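Researcher: Quick test of sequence recovery. Tokens follow.
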């Protein structure tokens, strides 16, 4: 498993699933063209870019470049790196027919191809020693439960209030919220925020 400092933005859930088998970092989806109308998600991308840096990894087809160019114009360029996968003709295993342009997307790429794309983009690979990051206790699902943010009465309202307080998208699921919180805060920071 490769540990990368930057968060990675991909187009959809199958891209995210493929990449999450290779890298250990925050991986977020644009929901395809859905990003064009989702100001909250775009604000989250900007925030992650500021905190950790962002790598944009879209499919090598026309739609992928439209999404990439939209993000390129919406996020400060000094906080974004661009990873490109090569044009390889074929179709993903889950599909019956190839895409419109007949090219494999991120989900169809071999791990070695994805790693090479991330290295060419200048991703910051961490050696696992934590030398590049201050050690921090991660936030767990049990912590969310203990803090009243999941599994109990009023948890939904507490989550919504916390997301609003932190200027995060209000529609994050508990699992997505956990991933984003771990990207931005330590457990101690979150507990301090929850302490009245």
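Model:
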């Amino acid at each position: 498993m490769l540990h990368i400092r930057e968060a990675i933005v991909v187009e959809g859930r199958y891209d995210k699933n493929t990449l999450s088998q290779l890298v250990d970092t925050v991986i977020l989806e644009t929901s395809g063209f859905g990003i064009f109308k989702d100001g909250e998600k775009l604000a989250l991308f900007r925030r992650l870019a500021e905190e950790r840096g962002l790598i944009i990894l879209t499919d090598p087809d026309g739609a992928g470049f439209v999404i990439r160019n939209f993000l390129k114009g919406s996020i400060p360029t000094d906080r974004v790196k661009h990873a490109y996968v090569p044009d390889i003709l074929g179709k993903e295993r889950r599909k019956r027919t190839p895409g419109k342009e007949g090219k494999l997307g991120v989900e169809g790429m071999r791990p070695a191809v994805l790693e090479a794309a991330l290295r060419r983009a200048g991703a910051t690979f961490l050696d696992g020693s934590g030398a590049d990051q201050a050690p921090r206790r991660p936030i767990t699902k049990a912590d969310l439960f203990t803090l009243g943010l999941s599994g109990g009465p009023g948890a939904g309202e507490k989550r919504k209030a916390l997301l609003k307080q932190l200027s995060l998208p209000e529609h994050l699921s508990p699992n997505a919220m956990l991933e984003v919180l771990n990207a931005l805060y330590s457990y101690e920071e979150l507990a301090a925020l929850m302490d009245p």
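The first helix runs from residue 13 to 20.
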